[in-house]
Design goal:
Oligomer: heterodimer
Number of strands of chain A: 23
Largest sheet of chain B: 2 strands, antiparallel
CATH class of the largest domain in chain A: Alpha Beta
Pfam families (chain B): BPD_transp_2 (PF02653)
Structural class of chain A: alpha/beta
Keywords (chain B): Cell membrane, Membrane, Transmembrane, Transmembrane helix
Largest interface: A-B, 34 and 29 residues
Strand order of the largest sheet of chain B: 1-4
Strand content of chain A: 25-35%
Subcellular location (chain B): Cell membrane
CATH topology of the largest domain in chain A: Rossmann fold
Strand order of the largest sheet of chain A: 1-13-12-4-11-10-7
Shape of chain B: globular
Helix content of chain A: 25-40%
Number of strands of chain B: 4
CATH architecture of the largest domain in chain A: 3-Layer(aba) Sandwich
Strand content of chain B: under 5%
Number of domains of chain B: 1
Number of domains of chain A: 4
Main location (chain B): membrane
InterPro entries (chain B): ABC_transp_permease
């Protein structure tokens, strides 16, 4: 563990406001946090750094009372406290602003700010008091133009964030936790956010700030704690004195190394199957070009919000491209998803349950969802053929339990992913698009999924994999594209780039 | 074959419905004796159930597909009016009774397709689109009929649809045929599979390559078509076309479908359940009428049955989820 003394003498004199010591959080089958230490002083911006899956979200949920730690203690002003639920966290003065802003669109600004602790007398809300207080808080936040009576749904993302912040302030928060607050904002709004953070800290509030953008951390932060694989690897580093290189080194490397299948290498002569040229989607991404040959796996690496998933969905026709073309086997694709599927494309979406599966239908019907019409005879279903096709894949993929008649709901994450892959195996895909194929999949099943994807490529499919986990992209793909702010900033064979370089590219990307 | 909880769930639900129906019959026999169990009464009961029944089959599809159609009653009314205007009846006299049938079916189908286009391509919420159709179709029917009742004078039409076949009225046979066809369509065809997929998880269906908009259009078209078939049956039964035909039919139909076990949220539909639901409500009405019980009391009993059935559904759903994890 690296421990660096903070620079300023005045800061040194301060007592820590919040301490977390040896926090452990176990979920069934996984240890999300394995001894995290964090120490935050009043009036500082403390940056929390770590890769996706390192445990940052779990840690702030423990602090917000949403998760109960398995072991470890939280101290506030040196006194141990327990945080049984989110209300208790707010009572202690700990406010959390989540990435997905948790405001109610249908309520007004003032109603949102006082949600759960309405100003009321005898059951009747004191609307004028709430409005007056709200106006004061919004003025303090530099947004006097937002009316307390405005419906929150009509505000842009930045406005919603202000409302979230105002809610934190309305409770006299002493510790404000912000989870990637700048990810949804444009540059002007980021400026305002930074100003607000500085004002908060000037008032003695401690801010725990999660961001992947090093430039922003340098502008705003005082000290940094780095988390990797559920452990604190460095605590209280000084922002000013720690070079980027050291930070990235601390974040990379992994305690659990996954084994990736060997790359057989794609023959130079292999024909391009998927050709994407200058594809764009409004403000989300622009000028994305890529070619995938038969047997090749191309990985897209990038931060959440960089446009990776949208690129995949646009290639698939689930979003209508505003510019550029997609060619499959030399033929230009037009129209929506059904045209892409008919041409031999398949997508395993990021959200398996909400985008991929019919949870209350048996496994075989989920597997044949794209092929039941083809297996049918002039409109009459052939369930025997469906079952047989599904059974074959269930055995080939070692999907457990091996029954095709169970409801999809009863399967584990890894097996649900296998069922989705089986769907496209039955279909016989030439192009397979995989969005976060191992999200929510436990460690054991991961290697199986990796092997499966490689086998699909070996059988001649052109595969694109999107993942938040950089080692996964690097280990699995033949070629890697790095996506930052909606643009492909790098394209090379996976062997020519390492985790360090990818992180450098995605994190040093300009603050939007 | 489908695993323990999945097997016991639907089977148990069907068993419950059959039990409820038998219970009602027993009550009927006990309270009115031979009057209920007579061939004549059962025939009447079935004839009354037939119109609602046919429309309920269509409604089962649209609800399973994640939608709702509030306009079926009005569309049925409009179809009876359009199929019985003087000009339609003249044409029918000249060319044959099928002109009236085709007119009724075409009007129903067209109204359904308008609903479907609004919902699928216009992205109007189904509730609103079909509520608008409910108002508009009733209004158009009044305009065409001039608020008068149009008597059906095409005798071949009446002779055909008021006849008996193998001891059952023709309109009961129509219900049987539509129900059987509906069962096959739902359980044995790609159309049925798409319906379940679109209603169960539209996003997953879309990403699997199913044309969900086109299918939604078809679903409303199908429901409109069953309202047209219902119109033919109503014309035959009442021998008149009127803009008030089918008033509040949508409520009876939706009640029968939901009591039958089709999920109002979509993704699961049962034709057998719908048929049982229709029979339960018709038998209830019949038993009440035979006992000279006030129709207001009858309405209260209906309400109680609907609430009870939905409560049971929730309970089953909760239990299934609990046992499947």
């Amino acid at each position: 563990m690296v421990d660096v003394d903070p620079p300023g003498a005045e800061q040194q004199a301060q007592q820590p406001l919040l301490q977390m010591r040896g926090i452990v959080k176990e979920f069934p089958g996984a240890r999300a946090l394995d001894g995290v230490d964090l120490e935050v002083r009043p009036g500082e911006v403390h940056c929390l750094l770590g890769q996706n899956g390192a445990g940052k979200s779990t840690l702030i949920k423990v602090l917000a009372g949403a998760h109960q730690p398995t072991a470890g203690e939280v101290l506030l002003d040196g006194e141990p406290v327990t945080i049984p639920d989110p209300v208790a966290a707010l009572g202690l003065g700990i406010a959390t602003i989540y990435q997905e802003l948790d405001v109610v669109d249908g309520l007004t600004v003032a109603e949102n700010i006082y949600l759960g602790h309405e100003l009321a007398r005898g059951g009747v809300t004191r609307r004028s008091d709430a409005a007056r207080n709200t106006r004061e808080i919004l003025k303090r936040l530099g947004h006097p133009e937002i009316s307390p009576h405005r419906e929150v749904g009509s505000l842009p993302a930045a406005g919603k964030q202000i409302v979230s912040l105002a809610r934190a302030l309305s409770r006299d928060a002493r510790v404000v936790v912000m989870d990637e607050p700048s990810a949804v904002l444009d540059s002007e709004e980021v400026e305002n956010l930074h100003r607000i953070v500085r004002e908060l800290t000037a008032d003695g509030v401690a801010v725990i700030y999660i961001s992947h953008r090093l430039e922003e951390i340098r502008q705003l932060g005082h000290r940094i704690t780095v988390i990797k694989d559920g452990r604190t690897v460095a605590t209280s580093l000084s922002v000013a004195d720690t070079p980027t290189d050291d930070l990235i080194k601390l974040m990379t490397g992994r305690a659990v190394e996954y084994s990736f299948p060997k790359r057989p290498g794609v023959p130079e002569a292999a024909a391009p199957v998927l050709e994407v040229t200058d594809l764009g989607l409004g403000d989300v991404f622009k000028d994305v070009s890529l070619t995938v040959r038969a047997g090749e796996i191309v990985g897209l690496a990038g931060l959440v919000g960089s446009g990776r998933s949208e690129i995949l969905e646009t290639i698939y026709g689930a979003r209508r491209a505003t510019s550029g073309t997609v060619r499959l086997g030399g033929k230009r694709l037009r129209g929506g998803v059904d045209a892409a599927v008919a041409a031999g494309m398949g997508l395993c979406p990021e959200e398996r349950k909400s985008q991929g599966l019919l949870l209350d239908e048996p496994v075989y019907r989920n597997i044949t969802l794209s092929t039941f019409a083809r297996l049918a005879h002039s409109g009459w279903l052939d369930e025997k053929a469906e079952r047989a096709a599904a059974q074959e894949q269930v055995e080939a993929l070692d999907l457990r339990p091996a029954s095709v008649d169970r409801d999809a709901r009863t399967l584990s994450g890894g097996n649900q992913q296998k069922a989705l892959l089986a769907r496209w195996l039955v279909h016989g895909c030439r192009v397979l698009l995989l969005d976060e194929p191992t999200r929510g999949v436990d460690v054991g099943a991961r290697s199986e999924i990796y092997n499966l994807i490689r086998r699909l490529a070996d059988d001649g499919a052109a595969v694109i994999v999107v993942s938040s986990e950089i080692p996964e992209v690097l280990g699995l793909a033949d070629r890697v594209l790095v996506i930052s702010d909606g643009r492909a900033v790098h394209d090379s064979p996976a062997d020519d780039i390492d985790e360090h370089a990818v992180l450098d590219m995605v994190m040093e990307g300009s603050v939007p | 074959m489908r695993g323990r909880s999945a097997l016991s769930g639907p089977a148990l639900r069907m068993g419950g419905l059959v039990l409820a129906l038998l219970l009602l019959c027993v009550v009927g026999i006990v309270t009115t004796g031979g009057r209920f169990a007579s061939v004549g009464n059962i025939t009447t009961l079935l004839a009354l159930a037939a119109t609602t029944g046919v429309v309920s089959i269509g409604m089962t599809f649209v609800i399973t597909g994640g939608g709702i159609d509030l306009s079926v009653g009005s569309v049925l009314g409009l179809s009876t009016v359009w199929a019985s205007t003087l000009s339609t009846q003249y044409l029918a006299e000249d060319y044959g009774w099928w002109v009236m049938v085709v007119t009724a079916l075409a009007v129903g189908l067209a109204a359904g397709l308008v609903n479907g286009a609004l919902v699928a391509y216009g992205k109007v919420p189904a509730f609103m689109a079909t509520l608008a159709m409910l108002a508009a179709a009733r209004g158009l029917a009044e305009l065409i009929a001039g608020r008068r009742t149009q008597l059906v004078e095409v005798d071949p039409f009446l002779d055909t649809f008021r006849a008996d076949l193998l001891g059952l009225p023709v309109i009961v046979w129509i219900f049987i045929v539509v129900a059987v066809a509906g069962w096959f369509l739902m359980n044995r065809t790609t159309f049925g599979r798409r319906t379940v997929a679109v209603g169960g998880n539209p996003e997953a269906a879309r990403l699997a390559g199913i044309k969900i908009k086109r299918h939604t259009l078809y679903l409303y078209g199908l429901t409109g078509l069953t309202a047209g078939i219902g119109a033919v049956m109503a014309l035959a039964r009442t021998t008149a076309g009127s803009s008030t035909n089918g008033t509040l039919l949508e409520l009876d139909v939706i009640a029968a479908v939901v009591v039958g076990g089709t999920l109002l949220a979509g993704g699961r539909g049962t034709i057998t359940g719908t048929v049982l639901g229709v029979l339960i409500f018709s038998t209830l009405t019949n038993v009440f009428i035979l006992n000279n019980i006030d129709s207001s009391v009858q309405a209260i009993a209906k309400g109680a049955i609907i609430v009870g059935a939905v409560l049971l559904q929730q309970w089953f759903a909760a239990r299934e989820k609990a046992t499947s994890t």
